[in-house]
Amino acid sequence: MSSESDVRAEVLAPKKRYKLPSAWLFVAPFLLFYVAFLIYPAIQVAYLSFTNSDITGQGSFVGLQNYVELIRDPDFWASLWHTLYFILLTVVPNTAVGFFLALLVTRLKRLRLPILSAFFLPYVLPVSVVTTGALWLLDTNFGIINYLTGSTISWFQDPNWAMPAVAVVTIWWTVGFNMLLFIAGLHNISPEVYEAAAIDGASRWQQFFFITCPLIWPVTSLVLLLQLIAQFKIFDQVYLLTQGGPYNSTVVVLLYMYRQAFQQNRGGYAAAVAVALLIIMLIGSAIAFRVMQGRRSK
Amino acid sequence: MKSHRFSFLRLTCTILTIIMALAWLFPLYWIVNTSLTAESDTIALPPSFVPIPPNFEAFAYVIENSPIFRWYFNTVLVASVITVISILVSLMCAYALSIMEFKGKGLINVWLLLGFMIPFGAMVIPLFMLMNQMHLVNSHLGVILPQIATPLSVIVFKRFFDQVPKDFRDAATIDGASDFHVLFNIYIPLNWSIIWAMAIITFIGAWNNFLWPFIVTNSTPMLTIPVGMTQVQSAYGVAFAKTSAVAVMASIPTALAYIIFQKRVTQGVVAAAGIK
What we know:
CATH superfamily of the largest domain in chain A: MetI-like
Strand content of chain A: under 5%
Helix content of chain B: over 70%
Number of strands of chain A: 0
Shape of chain B: globular
Number of domains of chain A: 2
Number of helices of chain B: 14
Number of strands of chain B: 0
Order of helices and strands of chain B: HHHHHHHHHHHHHH
Oligomer: heterodimer
Mean pLDDT of chain B: 89
Radius of gyration of chain B: 24 Å
Shape of chain A: globular
């Protein structure tokens, strides 16, 4: 009896003693990169926003000056409005198209995998490939889209069409991701629920509206939230398709930040733009989350 | 009669789906088609819809006149190093968070969620300054370092590790195995498929990343393919066959990776979103 407890003590004691340093040994490599290249820059960007630094970080503390300027800066507000316009053009449509494609794909059997990959394939391509293709297909004079439809619209040079065109390209590129999440969600709905409804005489449409839609809502709200966060950060497509033009009509917040930092050499002011975007994003996501939670609990 | 009408509806729906899928692929087909057309024929009206006979002029020109293979090398190197190190450190961190008890664990969990919400784009300014101070602008290391810590991988791995019975580790440690042994000989083999899935996703993501390489590199020999491509575009001006040829070459690795590892990519995306 006593020897057995001795053995147990021997086995357990050393483990207990090395547990703490050993655990940190496992966490340390990740934390090192995480703190150095995520946490530290996040703190640094907040600090920089109170300075008049250039892009190398040289500058002095100026208090709230950047924020005072930001609030009166019509170009910043314009960039925020363009970002919100882009969000309006992408978040809900991208989610809706993803849901629609998922419904189409899940009812397939043998063709399911090839069709699924056809819709998902654009998503794995680099953004510059997507924009190169878009600039070519939507070229005013030689683009195949204008040739086939007979339109003469200069998609990326017309202030009215530039942002919608960027939005359509974005949806074509990324909808496969949303579709995949919806397919997984649809897959999780038990077929028994449909069988029970069918026995009770529910039509296909009734099943769709009263079973599929409510049961898929957790996925829908997740996709909407992920979309919202992703589209707030829009930069790549706009930079590559329009460079912010025509007449600055597609300058989004991150592009405005990029210009301030790397073209005007105003690191401090650009940091204030970044912080403002961060705060707006957090508030926006929190509101969206609250609204969707409310709907779910109903 | 009713079943006949029903199957007719199903068939219409399937055909509609196929047409949509083909429409979705059309832009990609069109880029490939253009890349195999002589430059002077790309702006011919009506355009030719089939590249027969294929013309490899554009590919030959791009290979000879741009450092595209150097960019390939850069991208392969950067994406591979990011994938290997990122997956390794995430696995170790997830292991500790999943089964070890230690001070500060709760804090790390909170930090991970925080990192989720901080958009990378908002941090390129301090990151650029940091790289500038470390003299890592225009270096592979400069591209690699900020892309290694991906909280998402840690969260996904932790979720999978949580489902491994604790008895496995207890039994192994009583036999004298260290935690490194437990991780590499038990936890990693048991979760091989999700690790593989996350590795492929990380690789594709690193290969495709535009914003950070674009910020931290500007000398032509140091660019990755997605950034280098844009140089070709501005250098050649209106040269659709050549830019299409570069686009095709830039897409081949990730497109192939997806087509070969399709199921893994799907599994990884769904797991990363937290849907089982």
